[in-house]
Amino acid sequence: MKSIVARHVLSAIALAAALPAAAQVIEPPVAVYTDGLPSHIRKRLEEKAKHGRTAVLQYINRTRNTYNLYAPDILRGAMR
Q: Which sequence spans correspond to the domains of the chain?
């Protein structure tokens, strides 16, 4: 009997932990300013822009030391 209760408790905990991941909000695509960037960086930024602002910011922060990109130039520059 204890093992059945333990399984139910563990299942409830696992379900509660999985709910926030399932409730992610889908962001709308965002415009990015990529003039003057190499084609491989431009292509990656445009792919990330389809997934929303958060994906673009994560990519810029993850590759900051390699490509020296600045988020306000990429995101705000699209409004020029």
A: 2-79
